[in-house]
Amino acid sequence: MDFIGQVIGVGPKRRDVLRAVAAGAAAGIALPHLASATIAPPAVSSYPAEAFRQTEKNPALQAMFGTSALTDTADVRMEAPDIAENGAVVPITFDANLPGITAAGVLALDNPFILACAYKIPAGTSPAISSRIKLAKTTNVISVIQSKGQLMSTSKQVKVTLGGCG
After folding, report:
1. pLDDT at 125
2. Rounded to an integer, what distance in angstroms lies between the CA atom of residue 17 and that of residue 30?
3. Where do the coiled-coil regions begin and end (predicted)?
4. For residues 166 and 157, what is the distance between their CA atoms, to the nearest angstrom?
5. What is the model's pTM?
6. How far apart are CA 84 and CA 86, in angstroms?
7. What are the Cα distances from residue 73, in Å, to 40, 46, 49, 98?
8. How far apart are CA 69 and CA 80, in angstroms?
9. pLDDT confidence of residue 164
10. Are strands 70-72 and 150-160 parallel, antiparallel or unpaired?
11. Cα–Cα distance between 61 and 129 in angstroms, integer?
12. Average pLDDT of each block of 10 consecutive residues along the chain (166 residues)?
């Protein structure tokens, strides 16, 4: 401390306070990264890349869900526009009230690649999924939920037009 600081009893210098704050910030940034580096990540199943390469419904379902047997049900609910004015961003929402849901996905039957999106659902989660999918042209869209190993679905025809004029 300088002479004036000693006389009036002023505490540590500004420089000392800044050093302490910088050291605390550095420790706060570095320690969580060091701790997380020592913890092994949870096992994650591999990304189903093959499912997204399929051009037909049954092979896409088989690659994504391990089965291709669909059961149409009212327990799967889907909202999609009747007419999509831009096929590049078609909003879709779907959910289900079924036990043991493990996966969900959307198929666009007339797209070059059938599987538009897919999700793994954590145990104990009730899926309510909203997304935007790309449609190449007017097509039948199928929402699929995997519940207790079975595929439950609902479908809707979505008309794709330029500017949304039917």
Report:
1. 83
2. 20
3. none
4. 13
5. 0.70
6. 5
7. 41, 29, 28, 11
8. 23
9. 52
10. parallel
11. 19
12. 52 76 72 56 67 94 94 95 93 92 94 94 87 94 95 96 64
Q: Taking a C-beta distance cutoff of 8 angstroms, is the pair 133, 160 a contact?
A: no
Any idea which fold 49-164 has? Immunoglobulin-like (2.60.40)
**Cβ atoms of 117 and 97 closer than 8 Å:** no
Of the candidates 90, 91, 92, the residue with the CA atom closest to the CA atom of residue 137:
90
Q: How many CB atoms lie within 10 A of CB 38?
A: 6
Round to whole Å and give the CA distance between 25 and 157.
56
Cα 81 to Cα 92: distance, rounded to the nearest angstrom: 8
Domain boundaries, the chain: 3-37, 49-164
Whose CA is closest to 75, among 150, 157, 158? 150
